[in-house]
Specification:
By secondary structure, the protein is an alpha+beta fold. It is about 20% helix and about 40% strand. The longest helix has about 35 residues, at about 555-585.
Length: about 625
Amino acid sequence: MTEPTERAAPPRCRAAAGRLGAALLVVLAAASARAQHAGFTATDVPAGPASIHGKVVHPEHPDAAAGVEVVLYALPSSGVPGLRRTQTDASGAFAFEGISNNPEVAYLVGARFANIPFPGSRIAFAPGETDRTTEVRIADPTMDPSAVSVVESKVRLDRSAAGLAVIETHELRNTGKQVVFVPGPARPKAKPAFAADFLPGAKDLTHPLGMKPDGLVDRPGGLAFFGPIYPGDQEFTFSYEVPLGAGSARVLEKRFPSAAQRVLVLASEAVGAVRAPGFGPAESVKDEDKSYRALEAKRVPEGATLDLALELPPMRADPSALSVTEVRLVLDVDDAAVTVQEEHALRVAEGPPLLGSPAQPLLSIPLPDGAQDVRFAAETSAVGLVPDSRGGLDVIGPLPAGESSLRIQYRVPVRDGRVALDRAFGAGFPLLSVYVADSGIAAESERLHRRRPVRTEDRAYLHLEAFEIAPGETVPLRLAALPPVAGLPPVAEMVLVALLAAAAVAILARPVLRPRSVALEAMQAPADRRERDSLYTAMRDLEDDFETGKVAEPDYRTLREELRGRALVLLQAERDAERIAGERARAHKAPSGPSSPAPCRACGASPRPEDRFCGRCGAPLARPAELEASA
């Protein structure tokens, strides 16, 4: 995690995007099933001014799109999901009105046709957007799996505390126009659309989002999938662990009940060398920020067996070889909770990879009181991040030598507009950086000191920092909402008046505080220049107030432009005055040679050129040079 910026999609999102359809399918299938369960009462989606309009499309039979159930599933940032259902009209159109357009709420749209869930798309409103359109495609079901093939089977191998962590991803392709699905009663006698066998000794089978697909059936040593498999391509993913005993060499048998056009075996550095008869080397793959050596085989027939020969490198069980170099927290506060995103930068000393155990973790990460909805990225789970018995997290490994990081996210409830985020750390480290999204929040801490705010294109962040965090130290941080304001224009006017008043006081106080010669010079300066100087002072004060968080960014930008504009007007006026004065001086410059004296200023008599005193009243007469100086 770098300093907060407008974030582009990280590289790992490309792989995640390929699994979006499967994730939508799992979520919508579960949501639709719960909605149909007798007695189940779903929470409605968040209310607001927006709407989602869409259409259900059946390419082969357009009339079948009428009267289809459509499900809207809401995933707010609060973590409390919502569900709403409707039906299509005669043309297949549907609408969800009066829903929230909060960009923090993600919507999943899907339909249920012939008792089969059909995923649509994921929708998130942009700021200020109030209407979105989408389309959900449906198809007739068939129990014939002949149109289904395996385009690619990918077996990814990593080390884990148990031994070997395996993630299998199978890309399925349905070249037909019907969705392949075998209902439950017919499965005992039907052929599955896809089947897979595990590596020997597999345990702890898990599925995306922790939910088992409806058409998945467990069988000894593997699984069978009866759909739904939709026209086109979709991915099927699952993971498990294989315990390994003592010794560095292993041969594991992998059987492929379904033929595959391509099989790819990926092995991380912690796994070591992998060999397999009939497989050749392929280009290394980077997946979820980790590099994998690759073996490849094409046109693997149904029933083929793969013998994986592993040479596992030695591992270290030495927590002292692991150090934390920095921890960064990004906080986003709303009325309900503080969302905390953390990144822990880790460094492992040179040598074999580190591997701990639940009894002796490499690193313990306590979580603050009240932390809930704890999440972490897929690459973070690869370092063996597991919950501990104290409500925190433990890092088990393996961790390779060099730099690595782990990212976690959780929420802490806000009560009465305040939250005490006392953050404790199991290990010591040199630098703690905290970034608080500036949304009218006051942050106080005796341990953290304030730095210059960090600004992005659309947000500003308060920046707090602390050095040399000791092992077991608790860093207190209190967050509270600033008093509400009436609106930008009144606030801007009040702050502007205050700044100008402060500048005026500074001008009036200068003769007292500064030496007499300097004060006189300032008093004798033109009024426009004095006002311009006061504006410069006000602009400097405004910058200081913004840097220290006393003025919000919208007010800051408005006031800065107003002060700057007025200062430019005065500067131009001063330059124009100087130019006009110079032209007048040149126009009134006296010609060379004798000149007539001016009339007497006391009585108005006209003296002779040689007179020094008035012949009528005796008053001294002004010389031409004195008259030019006084002009």
